[in-house]
Amino acid sequence: MTRIITIIPALNAASRLPATLQSLAEAERAGLCAGWILADGGSSDATVRVARQAGGAILGGAKGRGAQLAAGGQAALARASRGDWLLFLHADTVLEPGWSGRARAFMEANTDRDRAGYFRFTLDEPGARARRLECMVAWRCKTFALPYGDQGLLIPAAFYARLGGYKPWPLFEDVDLVRRVGRGRLAALPARAVTSAERFASEGYLKRSAKNLSLLARYYCGDSPERLARAYRK
Q1: CB 65 within 8 A of CB 7
Q2: 213 part of a folded domain
Q3: How many structural domains are present in the chain?
Q4: What is the domain extent for residue 61?
Q5: Per residue in 14-29, is it b (16+ CB within 10 Å) or e — as a string?
Q6: Would you say residue 211 lies in a domain?
Q7: pLDDT tens over the chain, length 234 residues
């Protein structure tokens, strides 16, 4: 039976992790869950304790989301059985009710095929500015086949292994992987991934969006992930 192993990179996510894990529970009830792995980046809060109490496998040591994703992916491959899929999901992203049924349909329709799916970007803040950003992300995904990591990634374990998995980059590790997946093998799943709007609200929607777009342009022009990460943190 096709099952899902979920990998969650986290850093000081204790306040948001329970909701993320709760949204994954429906996959367990549906018999789709083959376990989940928390790839912790050195949290100083209760993140690890929350994950351990919820029954997850804890993987520590990796610093930075790209390194956490890479390490978590390797750990998931080591425990995957033939036909299993991997779900990479950020610790502040909640999948909407019913997502597991849509994921099951996608996986069954793509048995033994090199395909990957992502969810529809949604913010947990009401109002026009959040809806505008969601529309912009939907346009980016449709036009450039470029979902980001906060939209999740559902991919066959065998396909992920053949692609070489995530690279331990400090930035744009998600863009790098979906570009290797390729437009023709990437699909939008009919379910929402609801992500915290805290970073956009605190930095300003326009300012953060413009900064992200500028960094993406530099990435496509060949700038290194290390230089881009330093600019991102400024």
Answers
A1: no
A2: no
A3: 1
A4: 4-199
A5: bebbeebbebbebbee
A6: no
A7: 789 999 999 999 999 999 999 999 999 999 999 999 999 999 999 999 999 999 999 999 889 999 999 999 999 999 999 999 999 999 999 999 999 999 999 999 999 899 999 999 999 999 999 999 999 999 999 999 999 999 999 999 999 999 999 999 999 999 999 999 999 999 999 999 999 998 898 889 999 999 999 999 999 999 999 999 999 988
CA–CA separation, 124 vs 222, rounded Å?
A: 33
Tokens of 70: 């890479």
Instruction: Classify residue 226: in a domain, yes or no.
Output: no
pTM of structure:
0.96
Nearest-angstrom CA–CA distance, 8 and 47 = 11
What Å distances lie between residue 107 and 13, 42, 92, 113, CA to CA? 29, 33, 24, 9
Q: What span, in angstroms and rounded, lies between the C-alpha atoms of 98 and 11?
A: 27
Q: Is residue 230 part of a domain?
A: no
Distance of CA 220 to the CA centre of its chain: 21
* CATH number for the domain harbouring residue 9: 3.90.550.10
The DSSP symbol for 12 reads S
Q: CB-based burial of residue 209 (10 Å sphere; 0-12 exposed, 13-18 middle, 19+ buried)? A: middle
What are the Cα distances from residue 139, in Å, to 12, 120, 133?
31, 11, 10
What whole-number distance in Å separates Cα of residue 124 and Cα of residue 131? Answer: 10
Taking the CA atoms of 179, 146, 19 and 170 in sequence, report the sign of the dihedral they define: positive
Name every residue whose Cβ is closer than 8 Å to that of residue 38 and which is 6 or more positions away in sequence. 8, 10, 17, 47, 48, 51, 56, 57, 58, 59, 91
